[in-house]
């Protein structure tokens, strides 16, 4: 029996897009559970609904064209879908924060990274700007940015891709969230930097005890990080098991998932080697 406290419980989530070409059932009945402090993976081919699931949890689906048409997203037992916009604003970036797939879309090019992180901190905590600056520099240090005092006053374009990603992580962690959603946080980076950032996230997760929903194409990434792995296909979870079960058990091994290259269903053991 699983006695751990449930932090997030998504039940039969359905998020559709109403486009000129018709209705796109991007998320079509997703169930997903995350316990307090647990690292949970969400993997699947491109377009299967991973980002839309994450944005639904954050209640950041643009309407129109999108709409959450059904289901429940319980957070600490309360349905986020029943919260007002104001209530959601307080939860976002405080109890739940997200690292987006595209770092440049979530960093503002006209503000220094220091100002952006400080602002994220002061938005939710009543502290003065000197204290916010100090905490920001601590955060930059924590995510492994060298010379954080100097970097504080740099703009996003003055940083490398890996560094911008670290800034994103610093910003997401600055409020000490209970849940961090990481949507392909490392995919755009080269393999060495990717490994460094994943190590960093794993270290911080352990240190801070937060739950992480890690979204990626790469089964190898979640196999290393996640306790539970959910595999999505066409807006549904088709498999949910521990990393060990997914990789060891013949039943799970034979379970087929499709590759986006259109080769049709492939056994998971082969899919491991596919970058999706
Ligand atoms: N704003 C939108 N308007 C119309 N359709 C959308 C919109 N956003 C997403 N979709 C559709 O919803 C489906 C799921 O998209 P989603 O971004 O969740 O995929 P994903 O699993 O994150 O893929 P990737 O691995 O490429 O990031 C796709 O078919 C996509 O085309
Ligand atoms: Mg995505």
Describe the structure.
- The protein has a single domain, classed as P-loop containing nucleotide triphosphate hydrolases (Rossmann fold, 3-Layer(aba) Sandwich), CATH 3.40.50.
- Helix content is about 35%, strand content about 30%.
- The protein has 12 helices and 12 strands.
- A hairpin with a 2-residue loop joins strand 9 and strand 10.
- By secondary structure, the chain is an alpha/beta fold.
- The strands form 3 sheets. Strands 6-7-8-3-9-10 form a 6-stranded mixed sheet, sandwiched between helices.
- Bound molecules: adenosine-5'-triphosphate and magnesium ion (MG).
- The site of adenosine-5'-triphosphate (ATP) has 16 residues, from strand 1, strand 2 and helix 1.
Put the structure in a nutshell.
The chain is an alpha/beta fold and 276 residues long.
Would you tell me the structural class of the helices and strands? alpha/beta
Portion in beta strands: 25-35%
* Small molecules bound: adenosine-5'-triphosphate, magnesium ion
- CATH superfamily heading: P-loop containing nucleotide triphosphate hydrolases
Spatial strand arrangement across the major sheet: 6-7-8-3-9-10
Corresponding CATH architecture = 3-Layer(aba) Sandwich
Task: Report the order of strands and helices.
Answer: EEEHEEHEHHHHHEHEHEEHHEEH
* CATH fold-level name: Rossmann fold
Give the terminus-to-terminus CA distance. 34 Å
User: How much is the average pLDDT?
Assistant: 86
- CATH uppermost class: Alpha Beta
The coarse silhouette is: globular
Give me the Rg, rounded. 19 Å
Q: Please indicate the count of domains.
A: 1
Sketch the major β-sheet.
6 strands, mixed
By DSSP (H or I, 4+ residues per run), the number of helices equals 12
Q: How many E strands? A: 12
Oligomer: single chain
Uncertain ranges: 252-276
């Amino acid at each position: 029996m699983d006695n751990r406290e449930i932090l997030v419980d998504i039940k039969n989530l359905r998020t559709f897009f109403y486009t000129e070409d018709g209705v796109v059932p991007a998320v079509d009945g997703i169930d997903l559970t995350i316990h307090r402090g647990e690292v949970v993976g969400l993997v699947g081919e491109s377009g299967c609904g991973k980002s839309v699931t994450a944005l639904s949890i954050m209640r950041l689906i643009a309407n129109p064209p999108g709409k959450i048409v059904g289901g429940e997203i319980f957070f600490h037992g309360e349905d986020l879908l029943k919260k007002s916009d104001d209530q959601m604003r307080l939860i976002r970036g405080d109890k739940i924060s997200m690292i987006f797939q595209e770092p440049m879309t979530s960093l503002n090019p006209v503000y220094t990274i220091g100002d952006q992180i400080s602002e994220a901190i002061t938005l939710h905590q009543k502290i003065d700007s000197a204290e916010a600056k100090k905490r920001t520099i601590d955060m930059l240090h924590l995510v492994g940015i060298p010379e954080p005092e100097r970097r504080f006053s740099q703009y996003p374009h003055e940083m490398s891709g890996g560094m911008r990603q670290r800034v994103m992580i610093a910003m997401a962690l600055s409020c000490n969230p209970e849940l961090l959603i990481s949507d392909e946080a490392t995919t755009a980076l080269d393999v060495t930097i990717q490994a460094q950032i994943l190590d960093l996230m794993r270290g911080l997760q352990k240190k801070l005890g937060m739950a992480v929903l890690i979204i990626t194409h790469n089964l190898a990434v979640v196999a290393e990080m996640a306790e539970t792995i959910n595999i999505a296909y066409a807006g549904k979870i088709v498999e949910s098991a521990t990393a060990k079960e997914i990789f060891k058990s013949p039943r799970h091994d034979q379970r087929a998932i499709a590759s986006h290259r259109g080769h049709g269903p492939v056994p998971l053991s082969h899919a491991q080697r596919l970058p999706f």
